[in-house]
Structures are given as C-alpha cells and as structure tokens.
Write a structure and sequence with these properties.
Layout (H helix, E strand, L loop, with lengths): L10 E8 L1 H7 L17 E2 L5 E6 L3 E4 L7 E4 L4 E8 L7 E12 L7 E12 L13 E13 L4 E14 L6 E9 L2 E4 L1
Parallel strand pairs: 1-6, 2-11, 5-12
Antiparallel strand pairs: 1-3, 4-5, 6-9, 7-10, 8-9, 10-11, 10-12
Pfam families: PixA (PF12306)
Keywords: DNA-directed RNA polymerase, Transcription
Protein name: DNA-directed RNA polymerase subunit beta
C-alpha cells in the first residue's frame, strides 16, 4: 500500500541585503532631477542590481539565489518572511521592507504584516571579553522583525518589494529617511 503524506507547512525566509551606497550614489538628493520618492505609496523603481536576496526554506529556487532577481517556489499554507538590511547591518544606513505589492499574475499572498519577535537572551559579542574576540557571547534582550504573509493560493505572482532607506544623520545618532524604493522578484506556488 502506498502512503502519500501531505507536505507540512514551511517557513520561508528571505534575507534582502541592499547596497545602499550604490542606491544613494545614483539617487543623489543634491541632484533635483534624481530625487528619491518621499511617498511610501509611490516608491522609486530600481533595477535588480545591488540587491541580494538569499532564500532559505523554500520549495525550490527557480533562479536568482543571491541576486535581486530571485524566483522561488512555495506551497499553499507556507509562510514567507522578508527581512531587509544594509551592508552595514542597518547600523549606518538602514533598510526596512514595508510592502509587497502585486503587479502581475495571481494573488498568491495573504496580507503582509510587520512582526516583531523579542528574544530575552539573544547573543551578541562581548566587547570586554578577555581575548577581545567577543567570546563568550553576552545574552541580552533583542528585537527581531520580519515582514510576513502566508501563501493563499497557487499561481505565479510578479510582486514588488518596497523598502524604506534611512541614512545616519550628521549627529551620528539618528537615522533619517532618505527615500522609498522598490523592485520586482517572482514567486511560483504549486
């Protein structure tokens, strides 16, 4: 007797690293002809260069792992979460993914939501460790965030990943909005 087991729901995580220096160099605010959008509902479109998407937990990578042209597979019921960061680990320039907008194909996703998870004893390097290598690590309360939705139906959706880019202010303490941007990877649901 053959037994077929239904695939369990999976959590699919997509880490998106944006080369913010390249984005800022092109969309220089000092050039009036190239000012990035300040309206989150109307982000500035970008090409697929200088964005690097790393996907784990998917039902298969169709193409583009490690690029801005990621295309991956998911099943109905899976959860897909996007996390954005700059090459500075959001310390100098910061990236926040805030919207996934469909522009073609099937409505594959349910509503996306920004979720914050608090780990009471997340690790970070100890700058005062005896050998100055950060070990043993400190356990400190830390917030983590993800922009998540469940997959609602099969099909292929062309969608835009929207992100807000913040830059470090002259005082070296505050990060201020630089602009809103987007580009378009793809998801295929079996």
């Amino acid at each position: 007797m053959d037994v077929t087991l239904a695939a369990a729901q999976q959590k699919i995580d997509i880490l998106t690293v944006v080369d913010t220096e390249t984005v800022k160099a092109y969309w220089n605010k000092s050039s009036p002809s190239r000012t990035p959008s300040q309206d989150p509902q109307s982000p500035t479109g970008l090409d697929h260069n200088n964005k690097f998407m790393i996907c784990t937990g998917s039902r298969g990578i169709i193409s583009g792992q490690g690029t801005g042209d990621l295309s991956f597979r998911a099943n109905v019921g899976d959860t897909v979460g996007f996390v954005g960061t700059s090459a500075y680990n959001n310390e100098i320039d910061a990236v926040i993914i805030y919207k996934i907008k469909k522009f073609s194909g099937t409505d594959v996703f349910n509503q996306f939501n920004a979720n914050v998870y608090v780990r009471k004893e997340a690790v970070q390097p100890d700058p005062n460790s005896e050998t100055r290598d950060g070990l043993p690590a400190l356990h400190v309360p830390t917030n983590f965030s993800s922009f998540e939705a469940s997959v609602r139906q099969s099909g292929t959706e062309g969608f835009g990943v929207c992100f807000a880019l913040y830059t470090l202010a002259d005082n070296g303490q505050r990060q201020d909005l630089y602009g809103y941007f987007w580009w378009d990877p793809t998801i295929t649901v079996a």
